Amino acid sequence: MLKVRRKGVLILPKRLREAVGLKEGDDVTAEVAGNSLVLRALKPKVVDVDPNLVEELLEEESQFEERRYRRLFQNEENST
Fold first, then answer.
1. What angle do CA 70, 73, 78 make, to 5 degrees?
2. Range of the domain at 74
3. Which parts of the chain sit beneath pLDDT 50?
């Protein structure tokens, strides 16, 4: 059993923190589910991404934006 202390502070027992891998300074999310309060350890997902693929996608996006701006400027010039 946990007790809500002053200013809403909860102290999680060590066994609970260890069970979900929580350490001092870690972030936790809290949400209401029905009549329950659900706490979840907020752990970032590590994703292995090929840097060459990222570079390729950024280059494609840059070219797309450049073409888009050219069309916009051409339309602007044609309307004046």
1. 120
2. 47-80
3. none
